[in-house]
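Q: What does the assembled structure look like for these inputs?
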Amino acid sequence: MKINRRNFFKVMGATAVSGSSLAALPSDLTAWESKAPPDPYGCLVDLTRCVGCRKCEEACSQVNGLPAPERANCQCTIFEKKRRPDDKAFTVVNRYFTGKLDNFDKPLPTYAKVQCMHCQDPACVSACIVGALTKDETGSVRYDVSKCIGCRYCMVACPFEIPAYEYHDPITPRVMKCTFCYDRISKDGGVPGCATICPTEAITFGKRADLLRVAHKRLDENPGKYINHVYGEKEAGGTSWLYISSVPFEDVNLPALPDNPSPKLSETIQHSLFSYLWSPIVLFSTLGALMYKSNKSNPENSNGKRGTLEEKNITKGGA
Amino acid sequence: MIKKIVYFTALMLVTALMPMHLSIHKASAAWTAPDQEDAKKRAKEVVPFIKEYKDEHKTARKISLMDAGVSINDVKDVYFLLDSPIIKEREDHYEPVRFAHKRHAALTKDCSKCHHLRPKDEKELETTRCSACHQDSFNSEHPERIGLKAAYHQQCIECHRTEAKGPVDCKGCHLQNVPDHKNLVKLPDNADVFQVTAECLRCHDAQANDMLTTAHWLWRGPSPYTTGHRKDIMHGKGTTALNNY
Amino acid sequence: MSHKAAPLNKKFWTPGVLVMVAFMIAGGIAILARFTGGIGYVANLSNARPWGLWVGVDVATGVALAAGGFTTAALAHILGKHFYEPVTRPALLTALLGYTFVVLGLLVDIGRSWAIWKPMFNWNTNSVLFEVAMCVMVYLHVLYIEFIPIVAEQFKDRVNLPGPLSIFNALVNLLLKMADAILDKIMWIFVILGVVLSCMHQSSLGSLMLIAPTKIHPLWYTPILPLLFLTSAFAVGYPMVVFETTIVTSSFNIDSEMEVLSPLTKITTFLLGIYMFLKIGDMLIRGTYVYLFDGTYQTNSFIVEMLIGVIIPWGMLLFEKVRRSRKALFTAATMIVGGVALNRINVFIVAYKPPLSEGGYFPAPGEILVTLGLIATLMFIYRVIVTYLPVLQAPKEVSS
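A:
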């Protein structure tokens, strides 16, 4: 290993120049900023209105060209097991008995629809190695299969455990999740399939800001009916889909989440360390200086010959 | 199976006569139920959207309806077919619901249960129709206003729940759009009643079993509303009445 | 230490090698199944558990245990401690093969293996995984470049391609000589670059899981996860060299290199000490010690990781006696290697528990076969290379 003086200064000079040209670097090191669209659409799910008819599942599969839901007309035994969205169903309705009783002391079921929450600052979008997932202006978190490499980091990242994978496709598997019916809502007057069909308007479609107002109005006007919280207003930095409910959200498998947007911590770390590659450049320069110094202070190894032990070793070995 | 066929053949005696009925109807230039025709016509109407409503508390609303002297006697339209184009435009999966307006009014004895708010404009009717205020869903100018379909469903299901009366599942009120049976039914030209019954049961075995357990089949008891049988105390389909539901 | 690297002059086909070949064949069959039936056909991965053995072991553990490469390079080449040079070549080879198999493991694991080049053109600089992927890709090339002089040393002026290819002998020789001459001048760039890239992605591998706070057990989930990954990579580098050198020297029956390994592990007491200090300090500051004795498989795994993988071997290495004894040193090094490996497995598999979905994860036989097959292939190639290229130190009795 030889570190030649002229060579060394050439490279180090270049490094220093590139480093100093980035002197204006801290602009990107400032506090993390949300990349949420300003006025996205959303859906407000009112669990007190849902009657568990599962029509949303049916509409979803028709709109998205998925296989028909499992026992589409069953509103009874299907609820005996808790289901999750998967590669064949973007949304499923589950039934929960949370201890609430009706007027006749019979257990009152609460039905909850699950689908992609379309986070304002989605973890999956931040995680995706190739940017195959994007947060659209409409609020939809979209998936571009042509970029996807199938690393499934989005699935690891999602706090709602939504993206599903076509594990049984050997060559061209896709990540499957609710599209927020992008093709419909991006057109004027378009409404997602599930919201269109919902008989009780348990799903209200509209601008997220309007829906938040509607949600709070409903909470205010019906004291005691609802838990005083709009789920998704702040969870994980806010989601396009919002829920209001008369039972605690944990009881219907909507997880308690920090208000911090999921990607904030990792993006802050990544950007403060690697913006303009400043830390690698600094590290490179430091190590270079160290190497130069250690080689110089050790003249035996930088005596112009191949500064290697091998030759030395041969002579020594011979001795 | 045999038992079922025997049971249902009795039932099918009537059904088998159906084509005859139909042909009679055709021949005699069709008697139609005037109620039904009126309801159909009414269902097609779309009235102008009422934007503003008078903000009243539930109790206040009940009192003001009573003050206005609105009662069951004011019910003009006994029967509604809930078949508005406002809903049909978006989707069409089910047959319209038949809503017995007067009957519901008589049962609840409280018009404010459904006519829960009134238009702000005093010239408008005190009890305006649902579809005047509830039209298309997700009206961005009135985000808190639910659409007509949701208004129906929420109103019906909620009340049926709290009163523990009336259906709360889809098929309790709706018939699903029935597929055309022309190509589904496979019968020889001169099918006898047993063949017809067997053909129905080929697909509708579950319904047949359900039927055998229902009050329609098993009901025995007094029949105070059946003309000519008002005083019979042990009548009913389980005994003497014909199963021609 | 006064001898040079030389090809190994040993019988190649031993019973051990045959066992490796058996595992390679089994792994090959499992890989074939994965590419015909899909990942779901051979693996227990699910929508709730998208990452399993392949990412936890083949990738995360693979990268961690290849840390011997950059840590020895930093010591011998950058800090100028040329005394340690005898172990740089085997460590470089381990790193090279390790990273090659990280990539092979990834090819099995990702759904669209044929699309693995796409991150080069679709950048998402917010993605931690993107940075890791870029670093691993560049570092793999750096490692290959660093290895060229070893190839050149063996074949320079001796190029003898088989059969009709022999007409290219002169050309290949020229290329080798040119590459060697050029690289000799600029190799220091690659050496430093290797260390820089390693620091970047070793730490970022820890940042990967920061995006899933609700899924990772609090004993492991900490904002300093990247720092812990980096310091543990520093700490495991030399023990890994001890581990493999001891295995290699005893299996080939050559010099034990103890005179290099003993002082090397003295540095480890310092590096491992930092890691231990950070890890325990983090636990105390965040107050996560309350979970320690929950008695679940997760907390027990944490205790094993810390106690057997960090604290005990660190204590052992404090004793000069342990560092001088080949057996004791090997034991301590093995524990550290196992501890860091378990840490990676813990972070990526054991600590990962999605709260909403039901069901756990245990790797399917197919997954295990793929991983074992890849490890066997790695060992097999290592053996082929040390047999034919000057990587290991030649036995003393030959050179002296």
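Chain C has a mean pLDDT of 90.
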